[in-house]
Structure formats: structure tokens, C-alpha cells
Fold this protein.
Amino acid sequence: MGGLESSLASGIAGSFARNSSAILRSSSVGSGAVENAAKASTSLGEGRTGVKQWLQNAGNLERAELTQNIESVGFKRMSPTSSPVSVFERGGMRIRLDPPQSGTPFNHMHLEYGGNSYDTFLSPVHYKSPAAHIPIR
């Protein structure tokens, strides 16, 4: 199990297992995803699946809802609330919510851990690749 996967499985997924029904229902994920995430444990299997489902649904969430979800699982805001870029960190993991920029004309999210960028499937990707720019509302 890699560092990011372990951190996600034990951190986000564990918290999502405790809070998944409210978080995922409010994000309009289908009931099957809610049930799967509710069953998520700190193991790589189910935990990783719950996190991937949340990441893949991130594009359906408003920025305020994303921020609330991210903070509810223990990430601390590292950027000023007045900044157009929101940066959150937890245990060496960083989530960054960015506004549209040159080359990326849409709101997006970055997931970084250990100097690597990751996509919605928790696969390492080049930080400039389209997959490292996860679309959000």
C-alpha cells in the first residue's frame, strides 16, 4: 500500500465511514455509493473505493460543500478565506481548490501527497497533466 493510499484509507475513508451518509447524501451521490462509503473501513479495499467515489463525484459539488467535506475529515485550511485558491493539508496530504487559470479554464481541484499529484482514481499523474486537474463547480 502506497503512502497516499494508506493515508487516504486511514484518514479520509475512516472519517467518511463515520460521516458518509450525511456527506454523500448531501452531494447527490446515488444510494449505492452512500452504502459503499458507509461500509468503508480503514482497509485499503473498501476505504479506497469510498474515497475514489467521493473524488469522482467532486465535480458535482459546489465549492462551499467541497470545503465543508474536506474540513469535516480533518484537513486544515492553510490559505486565507479571502484567497481565490483554497489550500487544505492533513498528514502530508494537500488538497488545493483553484479557480480557472490560463490553460485550465475551469474550477478544479488538485490532490497532492509526497511531492506527487494524483487523479480521481488515486493514480499518480504528472502535475501538469489534465488528470491532475480534477474539475469542480
